[in-house]
Amino acid sequence: MALRRPILTTLHTPPSTPIHIPTWESLFSLSSAQLRAAGVEPARARRYLLHWREKFRNGEFGVGGNAKYVKDGAAELRVIEVPTTSPRFAAATATRAAGHRKVAVNVPAGTEKVDVGAKGEVVPVLGVRGLWEEKRGRIVDGGERRRAEVRAKRRAEERKTSRA
Fold it and tell me: pTM surpassing 0.85?
């Protein structure tokens, strides 16, 4: 099955660089070296693809990523209480009954009643761009590798200015 839409639109690759990944199956089986040969540059883009491929294989879809009932790009979630035998939930609290825990479930659009005691209201979850993105840390003092060097130079400069 050939790819019908560009899957690498979020990666920072120049538009003039041809990327050739023939099928979805090959995307899920290529190694980093094979992705490089296919034209996926820089290394950050390859790591991004490999990271999300592994998350998908492990079933880590993120908020609403495993929703069965989606209509017009929105999934409806309802918070419900379900019985549990865990001793952690044995005592009642102000927000939950004894022996119950709260979970979010995906319900079909317009569903009024859920099988298990539904008390919460329905909340729509929209799949917008960037919903599942993981933010990278910000670079402080030249990054992890250069941090000691940059800070040493800064201290030396401060010492020089304090002597003058």
Answer: no
Residue pair 82/103 in contact (Cβ under 8 Å)? The answer is yes
Q: What is the pLDDT of residues 51-64, one digit of tens each?
A: 888 888 887 777 66
pLDDT higher than 50, residue 50: yes
- Contact by Cβ (8 Å): 77, 108: no
Give every CB contact of residue 55 below 8 A, 6+ residues apart in sequence. 61
Neighbours of 28 (CB within 10 A): 11
Torsion angle of alpha carbons 101, 107, 111, 117, nearest 10°? Answer: -10
How many angstroms from the chain centroid is the CA of residue 128? 12
Q: Which helix (H) or strand (E) holds 159?
A: helix 147-163
Cα gap 131→126, rounded to integer Å? 9
* 51 phi and psi angles, rounded to 5 deg: -60, -50
Q: With beta carbons less than 8 A apart as the criterion, state whether 45 and 13 touch.
A: yes
pLDDT at site 56:
83
Output the pLDDT for position 151. 94
